[in-house]
Queue: 3 jobs
Job 1
Amino acid sequence: MLTANGAFETTLDAKGFPNQGDYGNSFLKLSLAGGTLTVSDYFTMHNEVNESGNDQDLGSGGIMLLPDLTDGGGVVRHLAVGAGKDGNLYVVNRDAMGRFNSNSNEIWQELPGALAGGIWSTPAYFNGAVYYGPSGGTLRAFTLKAAQLASASASSTAARFAYPGTSPAVSANAASNGIVWAHENTNPAVLHAYDAGNLAHELYNSSQAANGRDQFGAGNKFITPMIADGKVFVGTQSGVAVFGLLN
């Protein structure tokens, strides 16, 4: 899980954990060993105190566990990605998360400033790519190779997504025909569909019909499209819009 800004003790105990047990702006791995909920491992950025003081929550975004990935040495890695208001994309090794070091972030990978504008949403994953939609920015795809994210996005959308950005969702036929769905918080709101292999290729958006057929009212914050039974469901300010193929 990711926590938001708050107290974090830079004085660590003998095991490398905050000596008073506060974990502001952190990745946390929780355990129920012995029937008690405890923090078994964590990662906190080296400048947590400064970020907390400037309201730069890590927990404004959601964490995502990646599928098992094999690194360049043939070792299977168990990774997680997360990002928040500071615009950095963090990748942690769930088996050794990095904990806290006041001089540097000792984690699997970090892409500083990769998500300018900050994250108030959750990412999506499909076929070796991670999709992020920062506030005020384009939806973008970061590809994975040898358990590492590419330093720059492989593709991005023409559209920019106003605050709070967009939480993408993916529909596909197993590993083929991937579509990335994204909600735009505007008035009227817009539902976009993109080719998962190339976000520059927009397949559809709900503002295309000249007669306003597919418009569904003013946008809403923090909406993730849901896909089921050949339909796409999008939350609105007063209900749920349902999109499907025309007869």
Job 2
Amino acid sequence: MTARLGRPLVWVGELGSTNDLARLLAGAGCPEGAVVVADRQTRGRGRQGRVWASPVGGLWCSVLLRPSADSPQGLLSLAVAVAVAETVEQFVPEPAGIRWPNDVEIAGRKVAGILIEATGAAVVVGVGINLNIELQVMPPEVAARAGSLHLIADRPIERRAVLEALLARLADWYSGWAAGGEAVSDAWSSRDLLRGKPVAVLRSGPGIEGVAEGISREGALRIRTTDGAIRQVVAGNVLQVCGPLGPSG
């Protein structure tokens, strides 16, 4: 383990959500670097309230951070995504890309997801990585897009080794993020799966259609709409679309 992350380490067999327990630890004054790991989550969740399937065979964990108030908040999820992408690449022979803001994919299949939640002055970073999961145990709508590292590597993946690698990469990128974040946006951009692709953003209010043009230095998704304007998106469900785009919303 790294000296900075993973102390204390709370490892349980079954848990509703590792993020929920980490939030409780934050409220109880647990120090930065505390990590919660579960063999299985019964109420795992992803961004925008989606259910995150978390059967035995994955790495489901949450890290407690206590960043300074002047850190570049919009880039934290991107920094974590880069750390996760670099981690999974240590165990498979394929490169990992990132779909804005922080879905990690290999060969078109999602192998990891991230959920970051603020709790008071602390931040809980939840990471789920599909290690040795048979896709047929997942809901059909999830299995259609999901990947698992053991299928890509054609061998079982050792969970503690992945955890140790993840905490090491997170520690490095957390430090880089806290120092200003410019390296974060550059590293994330090198893995951008949406750049140059037609996309549609679903959100409350009018949607947006256009072509993804990378990210801003603050981590917002830049979209060039059909009228040539650049719109910046900080939240929403971004879908890659096929065929001609209609008028921008």
Job 3
Amino acid sequence: MQDLGSLGGTLSIPGSLDHFGSVRAINESGEVAGTSTLAGDEVWHAFVWSKGTMIDLGTLGGRTSDALAINNKSQVVGRADFSPDSPYHHAVVWCNGSIQDLGMVDPCQNSTATSVNSANQIVGGLGVCTDDPKDPTYFSAFYMVKGKPMVDLNTLITPASDIHLTDAWNINNRGEILANGKLPDGSERVALLVPIPSGR
């Protein structure tokens, strides 16, 4: 057993402080993505642990960031605060020492990336998409692929479903997505999304 350490604080975990057990935080090379508090335990940052070293992945300019998953290309996804004056955060991908803001889908204010596969396909969740937290569409799942804009995953489902997808948790290397959502009566469901073969 090896202690991976911390970024100076007293807490470090695989994945995010808010998403225990729902992420793929280790890749086939043994690299680990996670979140650690800094000295004083009032601020936390995403990290990647690789070859015996824990690296602080930083933020977009705000106070905190969380890493939720890592793929076999050492790409880490999660979220980061983009301003010390804003309560919102954006989905991000860290790659080769740089951070990329993945943005969001209007009118949502928050986005968090939860999974990335080896084809650079990323899924996650959107938040504060309406003014009413009780609105079924206050949260929505998203999908994006490198070089293309982020989209609400609900708009890609064929045929349309009564389930409104609120979060997408994992995407495998075949492009299959594991998500959860709600029916109009408030019942919650797990959903498996399978890509439609090209030409159909």
